[in-house]
Amino acid sequence: MKIGLVTPYVYPLPGGVNDHVGHLYEALRARGHDVRILTASHGLQRSSEGDVIRIGKGFSVPSNGSMGTLTVSPRYRSQIQAVLGREQFDLLHFHEPFVPLLALFTLRESRSVNVATFHAYAGYAPGYQLGGKMLGPVARNLHGRIAVSAAARHFADRYLPGDYKVIPNGVDLRRFAHAVPMARWQDGRPNILFVGRLEPRKGLLPLLKAYRILRKGGCDCRLLVVGSGPQEREAHRYVMTRRLPDVEFLGRVSDGDKVQLFKTADVYASPATGRESFGIVLLEAMAAGTAIVCSDIHGYKGVVKRGEQALLVPPGESRPLAEALMRLLADPDLRERMGQSGLERVVEFGWERVAARVEAYYGFVIRRLEAQGALPRDFHAEVPPDPRGSSIA
Both 113 and 228 in a single domain? Predict the structure, then answer.
């Protein structure tokens, strides 16, 4: 099939949705599909770069306790019509269709089979409220809906009620298979790793407070912090004023270095305070065979199982976080058991398996439309057969 993946965030800038889109693009191409990525530009990118098609400009705006993107263009309709007329997609797959405005305008103009994946989870999201109101009149063009977790499904259903298929995020297991730890931090001192945007909802300050408790209690460990963001100066100031030793702020790192850092870590800490729909970093930690301490929040509980791959702690509370970290740091056998359990569980989240489930859902939606005599006019591919005895569950 000819498939267009529509992301409202400026691809390939870092972020969970863009990572998902990039891996899905590769996996679908490996399965024989012709795939394009539709996104916005940010700065001086060219309008088209190989399989990446740019429409409109993306601007960073605060959203869901983080930073999101608003895409705009004075000629959206004509630009989108030109792209869709030229490309003739059999299927368009919208990621975060509530995020204004690229997905909303493209969905309105689409004459393809339309599937959407909902990634977000939040207590209150103005972008979802705005997008939900705008999407309502064109929701009839949406033929299938995917949510990356039960939490994401529950959240999206508040704004656009209907049937959702839960298909999780994935992880590239091949990247971790032969990775080795970084020798720089292999000196016998245990390493705690944090990877994420340095913003309040990711929980770095509670982690720094927990680390302080560990050091005051005599635990000779190290904290590796990967990422950047608006809370960076505050985090540096906290470390300096408390004179916390062995905290390494590494900033943004390459994908290769990130994989090695997960292998370097003795414990991975993800103390997010909430509004996480899934937790791709937990998949990466499991793929590296690293034991996890993470917050007891809805989005994480569908990824790890309590006491098997991770110790779960109340979000935002530093002392329980410190106690869980200390328990793992003091018990190499427990770390080993949890790491091995993670390696076994993460197989079901490998991108080959996840992409196969997405492809199967495409087939289900297309066959349903054919049975209703409602296949859109731009769908020209063969209707995927219904494999005997197969399931998309």
Answer: no
